[in-house]
C-alpha cells in the first residue's frame, strides 16, 4: 500500500469513528447534563473536520508538478497540518470560554447522569485504539501529516480520560469536576494545536532537514569518486520531502564534461536517500595543492 492509499484508507476510518463519537458524545452529554462530555464531542467533531482537510490535502499533494509548482504540490500537506493546528486552537478557545463561564457561576453546575461516564469510557477506548492505528500507518509510510493527525487522535484520548475523571468526580459529590475537566480539555487541545501549527509554520519557512538526514547526505556526497570536498550544503523541507543544494569541489584540471559527470553522480547518489526529492549542485574547481 503506497503512502497516498494508506493516508486515504486510515483517514476514512478516522472519519467514521469521529462521526459516531461526536454524535454520541454531544447527544448523551446534553441528555446527561455533562458540559465536559459535550466539549469532548465538539472536539471529536473538530477531528471530523480535520479528517476532511487531510483527505483534501492528500488528494491535492498527488498532483504532478506544473508550471506554477515545478517542485510538485507536497506543501499542501504542510498547509493542512497548519490548518489542523489553527482549528484545534479555535476549538480550545471555545471550550475554555464555556468552562470558565460555568465555573464563575458554580450554583448552575448540575449533577450529571451516570450514562455520561459510560459514554466517556467508550470514547476513551475508541480514540486510543484509533491513535495507535493511525500512528502505525503514519510511521510506516513516513507521512508527517498522518502522524500529526494521529497525535491529534491521542490528544482526544487524553481529553476523554480527563472528561471521565471529571464526570466521576461530579457523580461523587464534586460538581465542579465536570467544568474543570472541560477546562483541562481546552488546555490540552490548545497545547497540541500550538505544537502542530508551529511545526507546520517551521516547514513553510524552509526548515532544514533532520540531523540524521543531513548526515546521510554528507556521507553520500563524500562517497562519490572525484569529489575533493564540498561546502554550502543546504536543505529545506517540502511536505515530507527534502530539497538539497550543495557546492562540490573537483580537480581544476578536469574538463567541463568530467566535472558535469561528477555532479550528476552526486545527484544520483543523494537521490538514493528516500526523502530527497531534488538536488541542485554547483561545481567549484580547486587545485590539488589546495586539497
From TrEMBL:
A Pfam family of this chain: ZT_dimer
Cellular component per GO, a single term: membrane
All residue ranges annotated as the Cation efflux protein transmembrane domain in the record: 12-205
InterPro entries from the UniProt entry: Cation_efflux (IPR002524), Cation_efflux_CTD (IPR027470), Cation_efflux_CTD_sf (IPR036837), Cation_efflux_TM (IPR058533), Cation_efflux_TMD_sf (IPR027469), CDF_Transporter (IPR050291)
Example GO molecular function: monoatomic cation transmembrane transporter activity
Record's keyword terms, sorted: Membrane, Transmembrane, Transmembrane helix, Transport
Residue intervals of the Cation efflux protein cytoplasmic domain: 211-285
UniProt-recorded name of the protein: Cobalt transporter
Originating organism: Pandoraea bronchicola
Amino acid at each position: 500500500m503506497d503512502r497516498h492509499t494508506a493516508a486515504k484508507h486510515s483517514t476514512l476510518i478516522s472519519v467514521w469513528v469521529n462521526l459516531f463519537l461526536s454524535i454520541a458524545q454531544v447527544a448523551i452529554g446534553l441528555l446527561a447534563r455533562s458540559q465536559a462530555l459535550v466539549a469532548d464531542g465538539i472536539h471529536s467533531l473538530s477531528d471530523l473536520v480535520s479528517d476532511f482537510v487531510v483527505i483534501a490535502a492528500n488528494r491535492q499533494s498527488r498532483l504532478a508538478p506544473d508550471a506554477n509548482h515545478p517542485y510538485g504540490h507536497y506543501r499542501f500537506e504542510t498547509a493542512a497540518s497548519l490548518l489542523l493546528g489553527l482549528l484545534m486552537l479555535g476549538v480550545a478557545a471555545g471550550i475554555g470560554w464555556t468552562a470558565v463561564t460555568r465555573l464563575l457561576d458554580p450554583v448552575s453546575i448540575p449533577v450529571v447522569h451516570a450514562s455520561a461516564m459510560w459514554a466517556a469510557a467508550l470514547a476513551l477506548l475508541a480514540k486510543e485504539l484509533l491513535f495507535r492505528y493511525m500512528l502505525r500507518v503514519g510511521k510506516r509510510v513516513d507521512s508527517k501529516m498522518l502522524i500529526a493527525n494521529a497525535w491529534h487522535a491521542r490528544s482526544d484520548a487524553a481529553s476523554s480520560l480527563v472528561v471521565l475523571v471529571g464526570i466521576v468526580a461530579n457523580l461523587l459529590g464534586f460538581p465542579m469536576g465536570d467544568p474543570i475537566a472541560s477546562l483541562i480539555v481546552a488546555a490540552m487541545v490548545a497545547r497540541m494545536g500550538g505544537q502542530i501549527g508551529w511545526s507546520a509554520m517551521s516547514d513553510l519557512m524552509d526548515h532544514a532537514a533532520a540531523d540524521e538526514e543531513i548526515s546521510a547526505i554528507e556521507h553520500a556526497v563524500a562517497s562519490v569518486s572525484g569529489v575533493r570536498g564540498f561546502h554550502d550544503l543546504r536543505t529545506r523541507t517540502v511536505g515530507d520531502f527534502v530539497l538539497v543544494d550543495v557546492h562540490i569541489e573537483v580537480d581544476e584540471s578536469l574538463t567541463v564534461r568530467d566535472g558535469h559527470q561528477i555532479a550528476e553522480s552526486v545527484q544520483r547518489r543523494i537521490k538514493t536517500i528516500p526523502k530527497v526529492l531534488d538536488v541542485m549542485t554547483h561545481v567549484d574547481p580547486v587545485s590539488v595543492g589546495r586539497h
